[in-house]
Design goal:
alpha/beta; five-stranded parallel sheet; three-stranded antiparallel sheet; 16 helices; 43% helix
């Protein structure tokens, strides 16, 4: 029986069995996950089910989102999530250790391309692991259907450079976080240990794998009926979802639209919730953290001395500045880090002389020099929820903090008390 709101209903022919009902198949896949997995939210169940389904339609999309099950502690259900996904996806390859060469050779043949399930990935990219830049580059390249790696083929002087495709679906499980470039290409599921009242069935591969494989066959059958429809599909994105999050969620939203029923609405709600959560958990770079902390410390002041900024930074309990490389942040380190960013005029941010008395001055920073970086790199305060173009941002910076024509002019007055104007 076809779901009444499924867009596939029109494909039925009287007197013949209708195509698999996409919404019903996804409902069955979700029910299977719920038997063995406790995910942290309804949005997580939605995302995982859509990810399972998209692996059967990989070549209809321009990109494939990675999905990452991450937790602060072991025993949080990450491996079990990958084991259930293993029963539902085409040609699964579950591993806890893989070299760049092995992964490349596994995925470079589109006709035999596996769904890669990479458990304990923290041992590859965690703080105690080496950089593994080759593997990270391979994972990132495989996010796009156009992604390739270049290899030399042939012998001696007859070698030629040949591109090999590395596009493949990838699910991961691990402790802590992953490199930023991988995180930005992933749906992040923050796993946690089950509470006493959260019960699941014990998973027994010899019994339950066959059940999952039957659902995999249903997913494949349904996928075949909508493959042509999904070629070049452009699903409507929720407001505010753009850039990398759009790349991640477009395939999942397209699958939800093809399935119909309650899945399109659920998918967009999950998209907004998980993208918002990922942004909230994004620690960003140390430089961005410094900019954000300085914005809070300035709190509307026009200029502040370096010595005061260093003291205030070191007092922040949840910040790294009191123990940066084993010692408190110094004026030299502050200048070096801020020098990577520029003012509204494109000049590197650097300390300037600030007059502290009739005959004395000291180094410090002006809010007008920092304001453009605050607008571009820090989460908005007064402008939260709005999308401000870079040109408008620069104009606002200039309006709030007029930049002095020369340092000599700016340094003529002694340091005043903090102004009441609110910094951007």
């Amino acid at each position: 029986m076809t779901h009444p709101s499924s867009p596939l209903k029109s494909l039925e022919t009287p007197g013949q069995p209708g195509p698999e009902d996409g919404a019903a198949v996804l409902d069955a896949v979700e029910a299977f996950h719920r038997r063995f997995n406790v995910f942290p939210s309804e949005a997580a169940y939605t995302a995982v089910v859509l990810w399972d389904a998209h692996t059967h339609l990989l070549d209809t999309f321009e990109s494939t989102p990675r999905i990452a099950f991450l937790s602060p502690e072991p025993g949080s259900g990450k491996t079990r999530a990958l084991e259930i996904i293993e029963t539902l996806t085409p040609r699964p390859m579950l591993t806890t250790d893989v070299s760049p060469a092995a992964l490349f050779r596994s995925v470079c043949d589109p006709d035999a391309r596996p769904t890669v399930l990479f458990d304990e990935i923290d041992t590859t990219f965690g703080p105690k692991a080496a950089g593994n830049e080759d593997l990270r580059g391979l994972i990132n390249s495989g996010h796009r259907r156009s992604g390739v790696v270049l290899r030399c083929v042939g012998d001696g002087s007859t070698q030629t450079v040949q591109p090999f495709p590395v596009y493949a679906a990838l699910a991961m499980g691990g402790l802590g976080d992953l490199p930023d470039t991988i995180m930005s290409r992933s749906v992040i599921i923050r796993m946690r240990r089950r509470a006493p009242n959260e019960e699941v069935e014990p998973y027994r591969e010899r019994i339950h794998k066959a059940e999952g494989n039957k659902l995999r066959e249903r997913l494949a059958t349904w996928a075949a009926t909508v493959r042509e429809k999904l070629e070049g599909a452009w699903p409507d994105l929720p407001e505010g979802i753009s850039d990398r999050p759009a790349d991640v969620w477009e395939p999942l939203l397209a699958v939800a639209d093809a399935a119909g029923g309650h899945w399109p609405e659920r998918a967009r709600a999950a998209c907004v919730q998980l993208v918002t959560a990922a942004k909230a958990n994004d620690k960003g770079s140390v430089g961005i953290r410094l900019l954000a902390d300085l914005r809070d410390i300035f709190d509307g002041a026009e200029r502040m001395l370096s010595a005061e900024l260093l003291g205030r930074l070191a007092e922040l309990d949840d910040a790294p500045w009191a123990d940066l490389d084993g010692k408190p942040i110094t004026a030299r380190a502050l200048a070096r880090m801020l020098g990577d960013y520029v003012t509204a005029d494109g000049d590197p941010i650097k300390p300037r002389n600030i007059k502290t008395g009739s005959k004395s001055s000291a180094k410090g920073y002006y809010a007008s020099d920092l304001a453009d970086a605050w607008l571009r790199y820090c989460r908005p305060l007064a402008l939260q929820g709005s999308a401000t173009a870079a040109t408008a941002a620069t104009a606002q910076v200039r309006a709030l903090f007029p930049v002095a024509d020369t340092p000599e002019v700016a340094d003529t007055d002694p340091l005043p008390a903090p102004q009441t104007a609110t910094a951007p």
